[in-house]
Prior knowledge:
By secondary structure, the chain is mostly beta strands. The protein has strands at residues 4-9, 12-17, 21-25, 34-37, 40-44, 49-51, 60-70, 74-80, 85-91, 94-104.
Amino acid sequence: MDAYAVVETGGKQYLVKQNSQLDVEKLAGEAGAGLTLDRVLAVSDGQTLKVGAPVITGASVIAEIVKQFRGEKVVSFKKKRRKGYHKKIGHRQSLTRLTIKEIKAA
Length: 106
């Protein structure tokens, strides 16, 4: 099995592997810039799994920003029958696409 890590960013947890791409909530930086994700919750080298409580000190994931973009529109529609009430709300989340370059275990 390949090495992987579980990282937390934007209030969500993601399982990442080296050279994989990942869409996360918007992070500061321009395309091509490097980024270090240091909230590593678990890391595996393919043989052993190390789990943090809650994070592993010294472990980090090195990533590169590929692009900044906005996700698909999500539509929320509320309606009450026979009352003439309806509400339509749209939302597009700002996202950052990352490429995972390296997983550093402590």
